[in-house]
Amino acid sequence: MDIRAIIVDDEEPAREEIKSLLLKFPEVKVLGEFEDALSAFNFVSENSIDVIFLDINLSGISGMKLANEIKEFKNFPLIVFVTAYSEYAVDAFDVGAVDYILKPIDEGRFFKTVLKIKNVLSSKERRKEDFVVCSLDEELTLVRLSEITYFFTENGKLYVKKGKEELPVKGLNLQGAEERFSPVGFFRINKEYLINISKISKIIPWFKGKYMIEMDNGDKLPLSPHRQKEFREIFKF
């Protein structure tokens, strides 16, 4: 996942230092650097940005004022304040800053901030995919991923099993579901089933070294021998 960043600081050496630190994270793309708040505001108004590294004491409009303006955007970026002044920390978190770094920048501290940014953005990305659209009584309904026990196919159609309830899925096949939801806790156990790992209640040894997986709704599903190695690695057995 690429992370689109800009740097706003009225001192060029400070911008260069942040840019140099970000070079160690190839997924972070610095799309622009600005020495004043107005130029940064105009850029963010017209471009999609994930994170701003923002100084507070800028000439003209302050970084805090800029953060307050940007917060009004529908999809406002994450804000990391990078400043020499500790007294604005409370105000910074009041405007929703994801972190507050003091100058001179400690490299280890900065790297922790980047990891934090990656985790926050990853979490936001997952929330976009928290639901599956299903048909129910001639209406469309949203089913939370956390409610789904497993996906399965029948006669070429994809369904979700939600407890004991079966619902046809709209606009998705099993391959697509696997690509979308494997990164968030689902596992393809054979050609027909994609299960929610958190809903597994038992792993039952079967004949000839095979396994049967019991879900928390009582359904027992066969684990393909071709998927055994990866499955066993997840649970370390």
UniProtKB/TrEMBL annotation:
Keywords: Phosphoprotein. SMART domains: LytTR, REC. It holds the Pfam family LytTR. One of its GO terms (molecular function) is DNA binding. Residues 131-237 form the HTH LytTR-type domain. Residues 4-118 form the Response regulatory domain. Coiled coil: none annotated. InterPro entries: CheY-like_superfamily, LytR-like, LytTR_DNA-bd_dom, Sig_transdc_resp-reg_receiver. It comes from the Bacteria. The modification 4-aspartylphosphate is found at D55. Transmembrane segments: none annotated. This is LytT family two-component system response regulator. It comes from Caldisericum exile (strain DSM 21853 / NBRC 104410 / AZM16c01).
